[in-house]
Amino acid sequence: MFQRRRSAVALRHVAFEDLGLLAPIMEREGWNVSFCEAPVDDLSHSSIRDADLLIVLGGPIGVYETDSYPFLTREIDLLERRLAQGLPTLGICLGAQLMAKALGARVYAGNVKEIGWGSVTLSDAGHASCLEPLAEGAPVMHWHGDTLDLPDNAARLASNENYENQAFAFGNHALALQFHLEADPRQLEEWYVGHAVELAASKISVRDLRAKTTEVAKTVARTADRVFTNWLSQLGQGNAASKTAQAR
């Protein structure tokens, strides 16, 4: 029996921060993905508003910079509607912060800029979630200076020594990751160029960052595959259960 491929839309803020390791996983798991350029595209279009899954990617701006970047307000409105309707949504870094804002939580500049590979500590809810493969200190890419408060009715999934809220879930349909689990080690050379000014200002050695990336590359790819495959599988189960309930 033919099974319809589901539609996903990825909201992108800068060209080099894309789906990375998530792209081949989406293809394998039966998703058709289209990209929307958040700063310039019409975010009210039905293909975005009603997509089976919305993925909001990272970017080098702050959620609170709506005066300089008015499109952020449109993103927040879009996320507010989707989250209220229980539509599957994934936010990464800036995307996670936009989700928090859409859910009424505060997003603000943090005390520490995190750039580089590090681990996170899972909460009880995190251990019971798709993030369980991160439990043994698996490396993830941190690249942010802002942080967020945990939204009401959200479950904290992960923390580290610098920030309490590194990941959260909202219901069974929404996942927010402050870190870049999708970052493809092979594509990070583009990040080093795109964020050259930030790296220099933070006195971070590109050579050292590149060496660490080479060291963790295989582990990172395996972990991302396990986490994202698990989460996409949960979405499929949730959609099936919802359709069954509607049929009764």
Automatic annotation (TrEMBL):
Gene Ontology terms, MF aspect: transferase activity
InterPro entries registered for this protein in UniProt: ChyE-like (IPR044992), Class_I_gatase-like (IPR029062), GATASE (IPR017926)
Database matches in Pfam families: GATase (PF00117)
GO cellular component, as recorded: cytosol
Keywords assigned: Glutamine amidotransferase, Transferase
Residues annotated as domain Glutamine amidotransferase: 45-188
Record-linked PANTHER family: GLUTAMINE AMIDOTRANSFERASE YLR126C-RELATED
NCBIfam families listed in its UniProt record: PRK07053.1 (NF005458)
Listed name of the protein: Glutamine amidotransferase
Organism whose genome encodes this protein: Bradyrhizobium rifense
